[in-house]
């Protein structure tokens, strides 16, 4: 029987519209929108100062790197350096300070490419040729040089235009500018376009279930038989989740509340699939989420291959990267010779003056490259086919390496942090999916809409008749696949991990009761841990022997301030920011007292939902305690610390709580600490925000060590 079916084509069309709007919002909020080829020297310097550019470069050498990409080495322009006199004592010129990092996509351009030229030929050089520079990915940065890999498609698949663009850089004064990386957007768009075009007959069983045309099939436990777990440390809820995911015929969700060992569980699940001779594609929304799994899987000796640009991978997982395997494995030998030949030819272009000879070399190169592509694609295909486990980011799964590859199952970690369209990039290649995540923490950041809803997750976990309508109205990109499936099919498609290995029981109790149906249990090893029990010397004080402290600033002496000034780019997303200077002083004093006990600043995090407050707290604390971590609540998702101090900021006569009303944000804030959580806020204002906030304030009043700061004392 069908339940609230959603038309797949209509869904994809709506997503396309929403994605377009999101992309436009992203581009327009990006400083880089205005930095096409031509900018003035002062803008270039400004861009360097704000971390977006690196000026005063020349190309010093080129070689063919991994995947047949050309890697250019860029060094400071000797002319500029001698003028600036900032060469090092050893006479080697150094790059100025800049914010370009490994993995950034950059465009390298001739400084004279634009400048004063304006109007329609601003991107043209003197010959009227298009002069957009060369785009690449930063592979390494050093004091004296920066290395950039060119060739977007890799695999020697550079086009003639790309080659020429690189050639053009020789002998020129250059600068590099960071570009917005729109690969993710492009791949989502392609996937949605594909889904729009599908006919009914193209829809797999799994797709029909995902859109409510069919109900999920019953899990088949008989088919999987008795399971022998390899990891002896797994707890019962983890084992149940693994059994459930193995037996599922189409969709299963692993719901992992904070600290419950989602990744730990996924590693065993992957191993079990491998033992059953299944091919598994493992994805996550970020490179870090994927590398985290590669690192933990690698010691298990299963053949794994990680797809992705080597510059963006953790060094520890490089040996499993497809591009490295293409070179180091036996299969890789067949491409080596051709690459050498390409290198030699490439180098000879520079020595050739005559245009005719150059053209001849380009023709040869074209042939060689074709050969390279064919051989490499065969090699890549073999390597991918021979691997039981392929790992990639969700958008990486849309790359050419996985074209036409089918998998028995796709596993997506941190699925509740991915846009649904992003998930579908990987999902079209399999008939079964396992999603791991927690829909009660924050969804991915979306710029084109605002996360200000007061009851962001009110509907989660309940079959929701209006889910389909909502999507068709195009209300939200923030609704994740994880959340939508749960609403569509109800909790029978999920299995929840219930033992958490992070928080003291008293820190865990409120989120467990309020959001996780009181199902969370604190593992024996963590339930009673206090700061004073840390393995290094910490004095026993009111703070270090107390898991939960509430500094209640009620009474009107700790009022918030509206912060109109721009503090960071995120302001556009967060709206006008707020701060609270008096409350910041309470936070600072608490931090000082903790550090006075011997607690290391590295073991403390101060987090707040408001950027205005973050800026204020940074001014007060950053210099004094460099090891202390200061951040936004949103940015701290997925992290943990021994002690966490949360500054709630809001304190006003109108009882406005703004986006404290989003309980997923508060859930993230209160579930980061292991041994000590200190909340600073005005219970009067906050308890009027929502029933959730009221319950929280009541809980803190009853269970926390309640303290009332004296404003006079602080001043
Ligand atoms: N069955 C277990 N027995 C003992 N420790 C465990 C078990 N499962 C997980 N842990 C520990 O719990 C911590 C969190 O586990 P893991 O890193 O797998 O979780 P995660 O899914 O990445 O994070 P989170 O659960 O916070 O989303 C780790 O320190 C891990 O060693």
From TrEMBL:
Pfam families: AAA_11 (PF13086), AAA_12 (PF13087), SMUBP-2_HCS1_1B (PF21138). Residues 118-133, 452-467 have a biased composition (Basic and acidic residues). Residues 230-459 form the Helicase ATP-binding domain. GO terms for molecular function: 5'-3' DNA helicase activity; ATP binding; hydrolase activity; RNA binding. SMART domains: AAA, DEXDc. InterPro entries: AAA+_ATPase (IPR003593), Coronavir_polyprotein_1ab (IPR050534), DNA2/NAM7-like_C (IPR041679), DNA2/NAM7_AAA_11 (IPR041677), Helicase_ATP-bd (IPR014001), P-loop_NTPase (IPR027417), SF1_C_Upf1 (IPR047187), SMUBP-2_HCS1_1B (IPR048761). GO terms for cellular component: chromosome; cytoplasm; nucleus. Residues 248-486 form the AAA+ ATPase domain. Keywords: ATP-binding, Cytoplasm, Helicase, Hydrolase, Nucleotide-binding, Nucleus. It is found in: Cytoplasm; Nucleus. This is DNA helicase. It comes from Penicillium atrosanguineum. The lineage of its organism: Eukaryota, Fungi, Dikarya, Ascomycota, Pezizomycotina.
């Amino acid at each position: 029987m069908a339940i609230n079916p959603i038309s797949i084509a209509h869904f994809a069309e709506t997503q396309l519209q929403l994605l377009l709007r999101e992309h436009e919002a992203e581009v327009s909020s990006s400083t880089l929108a205005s930095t096409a080829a031509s900018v003035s020297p002062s803008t270039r310097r400004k861009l360097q100062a704000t971390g977006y550019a690196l000026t005063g470069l020349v190309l010093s050498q080129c070689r063919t790197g991994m995947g047949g990409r050309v890697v250019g080495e860029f060094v400071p322009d000797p002319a500029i350096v001698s003028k600036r006199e900032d060469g090092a004592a050893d006479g080697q010129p150094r790059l100025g300070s800049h914010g370009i990092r490994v993995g950034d996509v950059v465009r390298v351009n001739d400084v004279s490419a634009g400048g004063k030229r304006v109007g329609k030929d601003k991107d043209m050089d003197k010959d009227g040729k298009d002069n957009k520079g060369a785009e690449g990915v930063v592979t390494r940065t050093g004091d004296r040089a920066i290395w950039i890999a060119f060739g977007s498609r890799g695999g020697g698949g550079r086009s003639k235009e790309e080659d020429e663009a690189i050639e053009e850089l020789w002998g020129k004064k250059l600068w590099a500018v960071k570009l917005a990386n729109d690969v993710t957007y492009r791949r989502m768009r392609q996937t949605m376009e594909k889904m729009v075009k599908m006919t009914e007959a193209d829809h797999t069983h799994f797709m029909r279930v995902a859109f409510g045309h069919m109900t999920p099939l019953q899990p088949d436990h008989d088919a999987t038989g008795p399971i022998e777990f390899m990891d002896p440390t797994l707890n019962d809820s983890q084992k149940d989740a693994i059994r459930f995911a193995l037996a599922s015929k189409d969709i299963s969700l692993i719901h992992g509340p904070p600290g419950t060992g989602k990744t730990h569980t996924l590693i065993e699940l992957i191993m079990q699939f491998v033992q059953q001779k299944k091919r598994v594609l493992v994805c996550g929304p970020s490179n870090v989420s994927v590398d985290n799994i590669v690192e933990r899987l690698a010691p298990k000796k299963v053949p794994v291959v990680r797809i992705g640009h080597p510059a963006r991978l953790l060094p520890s997982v490089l040996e499993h990267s497809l591009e490295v395997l293409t070179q180091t494995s036996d299969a890789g030998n067949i491409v080596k010779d051709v690459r050498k030949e390409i290198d030699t030819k490439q180098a000879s272009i520079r020595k050739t003056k005559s245009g005719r000879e150059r053209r001849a070399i380009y023709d040869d190169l074209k042939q060689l490259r074709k050969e390279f592509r064919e051989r490499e694609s065969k090699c890549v295909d073999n390597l991918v086919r021979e691997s039981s486990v392929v790992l990639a980011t969700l958008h990486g799964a849309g790359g050419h390496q996985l074209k036409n590859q089918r998998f028995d199952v796709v596993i997506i970690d941190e699925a509740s942090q991915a846009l649904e369209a992003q998930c579908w990039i990987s999902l079209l290649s399999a008939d079964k999916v396992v999603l791991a995540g927690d829909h009660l923490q924050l969804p991915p950041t979306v710029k084109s809409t605002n996360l200000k809803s007061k009851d962001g997750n009110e509907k989660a976990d309940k079959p929701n008749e209006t889910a389909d309508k909502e999507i068709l109205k195009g209300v939200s990109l923030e609704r994740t696949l994880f959340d939508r499936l749960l609403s569509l099919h109800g909790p029978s498609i999920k299995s929840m991990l219930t033992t958490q290995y992070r928080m003291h029981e008293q820190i865990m109790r409120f989120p467990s009761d309020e959001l996780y149906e009181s199902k969370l249990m604190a593992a024996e090893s963590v339930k009673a841990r206090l700061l004073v029990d840390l393995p290094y010397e910490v004095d026993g004080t009111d703070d270090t022997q107390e898991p939960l402290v509430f500094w209640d600033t009620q009474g009107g002496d700790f009022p918030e301030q509206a912060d109109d000034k721009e503090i960071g780019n995120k302001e556009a997303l967060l709206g006008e920011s707020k701060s609270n200077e008096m409350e910041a002083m309470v936070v600072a004093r608490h931090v000082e007292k903790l550090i006075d006990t011997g607690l290391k600043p590295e073991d403390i995090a101060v987090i707040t939902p408001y950027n205005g407050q973050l800026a204020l707290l940074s001014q007060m604390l950053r210099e004094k305690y460099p090891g202390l971590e200061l951040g936004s609540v949103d940015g701290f998702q997925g992290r943990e610390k021994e002690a966490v101090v949360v500054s709630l900021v809001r304190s006003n006569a109108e009882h406005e709580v703004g986006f404290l009303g989003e309980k997923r944000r508060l859930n993230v804030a209160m579930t980061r600490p292991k041994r000590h959580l200190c909340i600073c806020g005005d219970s009067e204002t906050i308890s009027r925000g929502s029933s959730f906030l009221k319950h929280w304030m009541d809980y803190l009043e009853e269970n926390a060590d309640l303290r009332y700061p004296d404003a006079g004392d602080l001043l």
